[in-house]
C-alpha cells in the first residue's frame, strides 16, 4: 500500500473525532521525506469553511530536547484511533511504498469520507492489527519489539 493512502485511512478512521471539535471541509497530512529515506515528521491539519486551518496533531518518530516523540495533539483535538494508526504507519514504514519519482514534500488530502471509504479504512485497520508490527502498546508507552 502507498504511504499516502495509509495516511488517508488514518485520518478517515478519526473523522468522527475531528467532527467533535470542528466541522472540517477537508483535512491534510503534510510531510517531508526524500525518496528512499524514512519519514521523521508529519503534521495533520483540519481545514474548515472559508479556509480556516487548525493543526490537529504532529508526529515525530524520534525524541529530542525540542520535542517529544510520537503524536502530540493540538487545539482541543484528540483521537486515540488517529494516534494508534499513525504509530503503526510511522513505526512500520517499510511496509508502505512511495513512488521513486515522488517529490520530497508529501501531501495527502482527505475530504469528508463516504461510507465506502470508511469501510475500506476500517477493513485495512482490522487487517493490520492481525499482522506483525514493530510496535506494541504497554499502557501509554511505545515499546519496540525485536
What does this structure look like?
The protein has 146 residues and is an alpha+beta fold. The chain contains 4 helices and 7 strands; from the N terminus they run ααββββαβαββ. The protein has helices at 3-13, 15-19, 80-91, 115-129, and strands at 26-32, 41-47, 53-60, 70-73, 105-110, 135-138, 141-144. The strands form 2 sheets. A 5-stranded antiparallel sheet has the order 4-3-2-1-5, covered by helices on one side. The protein has a two-stranded antiparallel sheet with strand order 6-7. Helix 1 (3-13) packs antiparallel against helix 3 (80-91) and helix 1 (3-13) crosses helix 4 (115-129). The protein is globular and about 35 Å long. The two termini are 23 Å apart. The model is unreliable at 135-146 (pLDDT under 50).
What are the SSEs and their pairings?
Elements: H1 3-13, H2 15-19, E1 26-32, E2 41-47, E3 53-60, E4 70-73, H3 80-91, E5 105-110, H4 115-129, E6 135-138, E7 141-144
Antiparallel strand pairs: 1-2, 1-5, 2-3, 3-4, 6-7
Helix pairs in contact: 1-3, 1-4
Into how many domains do the coordinates divide? Answer: 1
Q: Roughly how much helix do the residues carry, as a percent range?
A: 25-40%
SS element count, helices? 4
**Strand order, largest beta sheet:** 4-3-2-1-5
Q: How would you describe the shape?
A: globular
> Beta-sheet strand percentage?
25-35%
Largest sheet: 5 strands, antiparallel
How would you state the average pLDDT, rounded? Answer: 85
Number of strands: 7
Q: Uncertain segments of ≥5 residues (pLDDT<50)? A: 135-146
Cα separation of the termini: 23 Å
Order of helices and strands: HHEEEEHEHEE
Cα-based radius of gyration, to the nearest Å: 15 Å
Secondary-structure-based class equals: alpha+beta
